[in-house]
Amino acid sequence: MTRGRASLRGLMAAGVAAALLYALSAPATTRQGVNFVVATTRIPRHVKALGFLHRDAQYRLLAGQITGALRGDEERALAVFRWTRAHILPTPGGWPIVDDHVLHIVIRGYGVEDQMADVFTTLLTYTGVPAFWKPIKLADPEAMLILSFANVDGRWAVFDVAHNVIFADAQGRLLDVETLAATPSLGDTIAGDVRLLGLPYSRYLALLRPFTVPKPLRAQKQMPWPRFWHELHQAIGIRR
């Protein structure tokens, strides 16, 4: 009986190993957009998995280097904001707009508005401060503002990375979504001369409600365990 169970366990282990090897060797895809034209390339699954783990390690390392010994949410948010502004510059005119991984934006050192926000919110989330970005759109299809939101001490503070705007009051306290949504004119006072297609911030801030937080956050899906559970829930949902 003992030998039979041992043999069965051995067969099961071999089956799991074979399935894992097949899964890792099966082809996967990766996508890259250049000037809004997306190309899909097939790559071995193990190469994709190794790339994912490499990026996760790099985000974690860089986030730690930026914030150092800082422990407060606000201090970490401001440190990552300043780093992003200093290291991710606007895409120069005539240069290609390349859309792939956040780490590649960091390496290139330039990006468009949503890519700047992506770097900021990803690195900030890796410091332990949940963050995400979203576009705020007006009726005009070209009238769009990319805002970033960070959960600073339980309140969702608001940032505009591309235009170097931190929404804070006269005492330097970060303003949250509810405050700005209730009094959009505060944005005009804080931003000063900044105009977005000739429009003031208040036009966009008035659209902050309803405010919803995505689950999981985009940046959390760059982390192994949150990504695993997300994919598992997706698979279960499909089966159901």
Query: What name is given to the CATH topology?
Result: C8orf32 fold
Strand content: 15-25%
Oligomer: single chain
Tell the overall outline: globular
Number of strands: 9
- Overall number of domains: 1
Order of helices and strands: HEEHHEEHEHEEEEHHHH
Structural class: alpha+beta
Could you estimate the helical fraction of the residues in percent? 40-55%
Highest-level CATH class: Alpha Beta
Number of H/I helices: 9
CATH architecture label name: Roll
Q: Mind summarizing the main beta sheet?
A: 4 strands, antiparallel
Strand order of the largest sheet: 6-7-8-9
List keywords for this structure.
4-stranded antiparallel beta sheet, 9 strands, 3-stranded antiparallel beta sheet, 240 residues, alpha+beta, C8orf32 fold, single chain
Topology:
Layout: H1 2-25, E1 27-34, E2 37-44, H2 45-67, H3 73-87, E3 89-90, E4 98-99, H4 102-108, E5 110-111, H5 113-126, E6 131-137, E7 144-152, E8 155-160, E9 165-166, H6 177-182, H7 185-191, H8 201-205, H9 224-239
Parallel strand pairs: 3-5
Antiparallel strand pairs: 1-2, 1-4, 6-7, 7-8, 8-9
Helix pairs in contact: 2-5, 3-5, 4-5
